């Protein structure tokens, strides 16, 4: 989709906790040395007992400081969209409204957006539609926050595709000027692959309510056993879905992959990064954000925007550069957006910078 009106990113922010190196994880017996070698990961961000919504609030504070340069105030926002891939707090409670209360504190709608790791890009698309359809407000605040530091999650071994990390990210989407302009955005799904993230696990009662750990490796093993026993495997190659979606969104943006300066992608381990993104797109790791993400981990829906903030605040992308934001998640679904950088960095002070 190419927006029917000019849509901008007017502010961006993050909050990342301190890192724990994969070397330390191996020394403590948390992480297998062979898995560490294969993953290429250097470190993971771990928040301890910092609540996920509080990380989203801290990231939003940074994004809102940036959007103030575009003249935006809290009264200009029409909605808050909060993204999460894991549990946020008490059952029956609204994390989006908690984030709203501690940021904009205005009587606007607040909603939680999924699915999973494509959440912030899905929210960006929804925000663009809202701003085009409703001229009564000029901005939407998008936030994300996750903390996997709980007994039911073994962040080091839940999946060989990634290491689960904690953190928050936020972006302000606006009809007014900003540091980047949204050229196009889109998504596609392969619903026939839905079972890959459910494999063998009952729908009811939900696993978390009976103390079942989050274990993607167990589910993958279940599917491999089924295929060995003669069950039909996937008829869709997800890499092709990724490539087709990227091609379409680039065409809608009026550009090509060869004109994209950088790709901000999910924080996968080395093998998954290549098989899901880099190889299908026929690009090399330096075009992406691998050197950044290998020291962070997979922060749920936040990854593409953590990467964009990292590149922009360090001047690695400059006005005129086009950047591809790319994520994939359960469903299976892929989402991507093309933005053009329109302004250089004009504010700072993120927690990530403090950690450098």
From TrEMBL:
Q: Which UniProt keywords apply?
A: Acyltransferase, Cytoplasm, Transferase
The UniProt entry, under Pfam families, shows: ACP_syn_III, ACP_syn_III_C
Enumerate the spans annotated as Beta-ketoacyl-[acyl-carrier-protein] synthase III C-terminal domain. 250-341
Q: Which Gene3D superfamilies match?
A: 3.40.47.10
InterPro entries for the chain:
ACP_syn_III_C, ACP_syn_III_N, Thiolase-like
Q: Pinpoint the Beta-ketoacyl-[acyl-carrier-protein] synthase III N-terminal domain residues.
A: 116-182
Protein known as:
Ketoacyl-ACP synthase III family protein
């Amino acid at each position: 989709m190419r927006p029917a009106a000019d849509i901008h990113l007017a502010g961006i922010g993050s909050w990342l906790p301190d890192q724990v190196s994969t070397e330390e994880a191996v020394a403590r017996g948390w992480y297998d040395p062979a898995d560490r070698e294969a993953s290429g990961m250097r470190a993971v961000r771990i928040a301890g007992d910092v609540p996920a919504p509080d990380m989203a609030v801290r990231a939003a504070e940074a994004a809102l400081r940036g959007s103030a340069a575009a003249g935006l105030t809290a009264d200009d926002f029409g909605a808050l969209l909060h993204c999460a891939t894991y549990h946020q707090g008490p059952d029956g409670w609204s994390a989006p409204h908690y984030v709203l209360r501690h940021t904009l504190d205005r009587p606007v709608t607040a909603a939680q957006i999924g699915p999973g790791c494509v959440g912030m890009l899905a929210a960006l698309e929804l925000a663009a539609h809202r701003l085009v359809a409703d001229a009564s407000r000029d901005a939407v605040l998008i936030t994300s926050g996750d903390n996997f530091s709980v007994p039911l999650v073994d962040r080091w071994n839940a999946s060989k595709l990634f290491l689960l990390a904690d953190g928050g990210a936020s972006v302000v989407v606006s009809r007014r000027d900003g540091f980047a302009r949204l050229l196009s955005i889109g998504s596609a799904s392969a619903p026939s692959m839905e079972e890959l993230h459910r494999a063998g696990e009952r729908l009811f009662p939900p696993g978390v309510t009976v103390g079942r750990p989050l274990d993607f490796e167990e589910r993958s093993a279940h599917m491999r056993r089924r295929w060995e026993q003669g069950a039909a495997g996937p008829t869709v190659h997800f890499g092709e879905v990724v490539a087709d979606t990227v091609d379409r969104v680039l065409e809608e943006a009026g550009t090509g992959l060869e004109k994209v300066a950088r790709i901000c992608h999910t924080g996968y381990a080395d093998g998954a990064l290549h098989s899901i993104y880099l190889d299908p797109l026929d690009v090399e790791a330096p075009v992406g954000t691998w050197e950044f993400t290998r020291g962070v981990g997979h922060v749920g829906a936040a990854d593409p925007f953590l990467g964009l903030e990292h590149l922009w605040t360090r001047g690695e992308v400059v006005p005129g550069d086009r950047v591809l934001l790319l994520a994939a998640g359960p469903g299976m679904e892929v989402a991507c957006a093309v933005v053009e950088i329109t302004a250089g960095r004009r504010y700072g002070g993120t927690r990530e910078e403090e950690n450098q």
